[in-house]
Amino acid sequence: MSNPDGGQRALLVRDLAQLATPAGSEAPLRGAALANVEVVRDAYVLCENGRITAFGPMRKLRPGLGEAQGEVEELDGRGLCAVPGLVDCHTHACFAGDRVDEFELRATGASYEALHAAGGGILATVRATRSAGERGLAEAVRRHRGWMRRAGTTTFEAKSGYGLDQETELASLRAIREAGGIATWLGAHAVPPEFSSAAAYLEFALADVLPQAARLAVAADVFLEEGAFDVDEARRYLEACRAAGLALRLHGDQFTEQGAIPLAVELGARSVDHLEATSDAGVGMLAASAVVGVLLPVSALFLGRPMPPARALVDAGAAIALATDFNPGSSFCESLGVVSSLAVTQLHLSPAEALAACTVNAAHVVGLAARVGRIAPGYTADLVLLDAPDWRYLSYHLGADLVAAVVEAGEITWQRAAGRSEPKRPALG
Ligand code: NIG
Ligand code: FE
Predict the structure, then answer these.
(1) CB contact at 8 A, 412 and 405
(2) How far from the centroid of its chain's Cα atoms is residue 232's Cα?
(3) Could you tell me which of 207, 206, 214, 208 has the C-alpha nearest to residue 188?
């Protein structure tokens, strides 16, 4: 990125209480390396032309450091901690309407699966999304993207899957890209009502949607579950998507084990996501593979389901990532901070493991680990500044409004209004 006058653009974030980043340069991190976070106290980060060019302790900051020729904008980091811009590798951010009525019904006994079987659930959102129009969808993704940014997410993946017809699926993928998201074609999310079987729907989706979806999306995803698609249908869909050049992802083991992990390993998928119902055998098979297990603890919490076996996965050597699963039905939450808190309190990960799982490992899942997910020279200058004395507050301060500023490609894209964090003390007396 350069200035309109042709000069270079530089941002110096200085006097940070702490800077924390996954160490090294590998991706994905697994085993003991997942917990290897580099912490610098009293730190600075220098961003030039959209990239990080230097970081370290303030005492090593010298005038003329880096390549900046012209003016350097400064951002005061006193009392703040910098971590890499967070990467949300699993969202369903392209939807219209809401499911607040179902949310209330579920609280008093209706199950998610029963609502789905009765034509509600995902299909309720399909109806709202189909009638939103392309501009309505673009507006919805932009709004959701704004929520994510304020929660510290600088890179997000989003899936289609609430259109399930040619027009709305392609409009969804375009809306995601327009909002700066990484698009995944979730063409096999549910069987829409105009088709009498999963086989008939897949026939249509692969013939009439895949050819154009493959030009807009980077990956394909399938919901492999009772009441959605079975393992043979999932294999047929994913093999066709792979032949069209898409990376493969699966929603698997959410409610029941239906063979998602063996299929993901067989097909060389990028990830298998959810894993709330994964058995010990599944843990072992995933750990012995290159497939990343994407854990979605808010979804488990929101639906009152068991948490995925995160500790067992990490201890067995599996590569894991964390994500929000942001959607109107099973996880109406865009905050990776909340996800990190649940990762520590419910999944028994350390704050360091949680940080790596929603930065570098999530970046690997979306194919961007060489550019985002770390604070290191050469990486895109995406940073989150936390209003906290210690970077571990990201998971420690549950549900807090912690994000003081967001930097994307060296530009400040969001900053909390001055004075908001510390209200004036009322006068004594
Ligand atoms: O990841 N399980 C399938 N899909 C989404 C939920 C979609 C919805 O309920 O609208 C999930 O949880
Ligand atoms: Fe999902």
Answers:
(1) yes
(2) 28
(3) 206
Q: Which two tokens stand for residue 51?
A: 């990239």
Q: Measure the CA–CA gap between 266 and 269, rounded to whole angstroms.
A: 8
pLDDT at 404: 98
Residue type, 183: A
What is the CB < 6 Å shell around ligand 1? 92, 121-122, 125, 223, 251, 254, 299, 325, 327-330
Residue 428 has pLDDT above 70, yes or no: no
pLDDT in tens, 394-421: 999 999 999 999 999 999 999 998 765 5
The stretches of 292-406 forming alpha helices (DSSP H) are: 297-302, 310-316, 336-345, 351-357, 360-365, 393-396
Tokens coding 281:
């055998």
- Give the pLDDT confidence score for residue 424 in this predicted structure: 47
Ligand nearest to the CA of 162: 1
Which of 90, 92, 250, 253 is the pocket-test mutation for ligand 1 (most atoms within 8 Å of CB)? 92
pLDDT in tens, 135-161: 999 999 999 999 999 999 999 999 999
Domains of the chain: 10-83+374-428 (2.30.40.10), 87-334 (3.20.20.140)
pLDDT in tens, 323-377: 999 999 999 999 999 999 999 999 999 999 999 999 999 999 999 999 999 999 9
The pTM assigned to this predicted structure is 0.96
Q: Which residues contact 334 (CB under 8 A, 6 or more apart)?
A: 88, 91, 93, 144, 147, 148, 151, 153, 324, 326
Q: Phi-psi category of 274—alpha, beta or left, where left has phi over 0 and alpha has psi -120 to 50?
A: left
> What residue owns the CA closest to ligand 1's atom 1?
325
3-class state of residue 220 by DSSP: strand
Of 106, 225, 327, which is best to mutate to test ligand 1, by the most ligand atoms within 8 angstroms of its C-beta?
327
> Ligand 2 centre and the CA of 29: distance in Å?
23
For a substitution probing ligand 1, which of 98, 102, 189, 330 has the most ligand atoms within 8 Å of its CB?
330
Closest residue to atom 9 of ligand 1, CA basis = 329
